[in-house]
Amino acid sequence: MKKSLLIVAFLLVAVTPFCQNAERFVNDLLSNMTLDEKIGQLNQYNGDWGATGKITPEGDKEQQIKQGKVGSMLNVTGVETVRKLQALALQSRLKIPLIFGQDVIHGFRTTFPIPLGEAASWDLSLMEKSARIAATEAAAYGINWTFAPMVDIARDPRWGRVMEGAGEDTYFGSQVAQARVKGFQGQGLGAVDAVMACAKHFAAYGAAVGGRDYNSVDMSLRQLNETYLPPFQAAVNAGVATLMSSFNDINGIPATANSYILREKLKKEWHFNGFVVSDWGSIGEMIRHGYAKDGYEAALKAITAGTDMDMESRCYRDHLKQLVADGKVPVSLINEAVKRILLKKYELGLFSDPYRFCNDERQARQVNNQENRRFAREDGEKSIVLLKNDPVNGRPLLPLFPNNQTIAFIGPFVKATVANHGFWAISFPDDSTRIVSQFEGLRNQLDASSTLLYAEGCHVNDNDESGFAEAVRVASQADIVILSLGEAPDMSGEAKSRSNLRLPGVQEALLETVSAVGKPVVLLLNAGRPLIFNWASEHVPSILYTWWLGTEAGNSIADVLVGTCNPSGKLPMSFPRTEGQIPLYYNHYSTGRPAKDDDDKFYVSAYIDLPNSPEYPFGYGLSYTTFDVAKLQLSSDRMPIQGGRLNVSVEVKNTGNYDGEEVVQLYIRDLVGCVVRPVRELKGFKKIFLRKGEVQTVSFALTPNDLKFFNNDLQYINEPGTYEVFVGHSSLASLKGTFELIK
Length: 743
Ligand code: GLC
Known about the structure:
With 743 residues, the chain is of the alpha/beta class. It is 31% helix and 18% strand.
């Protein structure tokens, strides 16, 4: 207790003068700014040229930067170009520096697993560290703002941007949001390896109708508060510097002009002191939404609702001055937005040294940083999910024992390099020479006694089966076949919604054809989302979900294949059996007629042509060893709402033949509420390492705050009643305890 008081005292002593100085500096500057200069700070342009390229044909961007009419640039990479543009900004009357933003989503010069894949590691320290490395590398290239983390809760894998977030669960997504914000911002803005983070896309972008990107969102404010807003609040609580408003409308009001989320929730209730940037052109898009008749009205609605900076729509640049002249927008509203932006520029240290992120030597050190690559390899290993590993002739195929074996490695991704980066990776000219392909990764693990054969088999997404014969020939020569299939990296990501989640092209046919050769098959599935692969689930004995793992992908996958690393990933999203099940998520409500099990179809909420359960559930993932979770104990059978605390413990034993990691998960169920409550809710998880045979006690602490929810009056409340607690390996955990929450 004493230590935390000392820390608080230090922060107050140290931080207060800084805040006072910042306020004073920014207020002085603001008082000297013309309206044009103020509006300039709210204007962000896309750089859309390379590190040494020329400014775009629009041409007058340089002139506008010199005139102080630009506050920020995005998609500018490299110290040389950043320095050049900063020099232009310092020619403006008040010499206000630019901030440079980039989508540093899962790495920069070193690419890590796509965020959904990394979320499957359930390792918050790992996620924080990869964000920290990404920030360090990006900052060395002159970038001081990343448009990440994406914290949209997503329950619909048809939406291509599920690859960018942490999946379907609000509690888990909130934990991941905090870890990634801390990673990007490090010890705090002002360090030359810290970048401003940006929680996006605010809000509920992942709930687009039909999983179709940019589509409408319509839900109760209770559901919005209960499921979709908490990860953003968690990011704010972690000190996130910025948020990005989303493209979608929410209950008929576009997020970019939605004062309920921007002012009432974010700036008032959550006391957010950073600034909000629109998404690309989303202010101007309100015209196409049919929410503004022109750019003038779009600018009016966005600035009034609380969007501070205009990314690329030019509505603020073209209309704010007239809106002020017409008395539609008070200067105070402009001042508030400008102040928020200038305070962050001050925190970044750009007023004291506008070139502090421009260090050629520091930039040069980021290329092929071996320490960062070693971490990327570990990050990739821990993101892989083992979905199946059924015995063949008495033993599971994985891990491989490759010595004296002939292995056939077949599929369109086996020798791919840049594909392993997935969507939202920053591309560099030397990428293809730096990325470890899956073939290379496995070859790195084999000695001369092994033979590694290769066939492409088919392309990713066409109807050409001409490669099948070679694939069959190669498979027939092998002792074991590894097939690497999936969707292309650009089949998930922004504007990549898919109505059909099966393996594209003729990959399914290739899988069945090669399997018919009769050799044991291991399947690797590369994807940015949950795919549907029923035949494989039924017929292929071993399946690894390998997402897109980044620069070290081949090594990470090979480490798991040969057992150097025992897979420990768990699914952050439910995997559907068909598209018809979507939206599909574990923390659903019971309904008045819940199906007892997958066979129950008698006047219950069920499909008559399909089991209700997912192909693979949230939180699911296997290991080369086995773990037993037993002896659930509660410290009490009751918890008072005032100051209550309940300890939940279990004994976890590694009952198999390999050392390994297990993610022990704790779920609750509120049996009766003033509104219906989910049948399960994740409220805790711990990833532990156990040697074979080892036993560990794992404990969780529950408090009344963990049990709060939003009632229909949008009050965040505790409600006395009976709760069940489940602890286990996934959302199917059956080890159960019960307690009463009492007044
Ligand atoms: C895109 C994305 C957003 C990204 C921004 C800048 O349209 O929606 O996530 O940060 O534009 O590239």
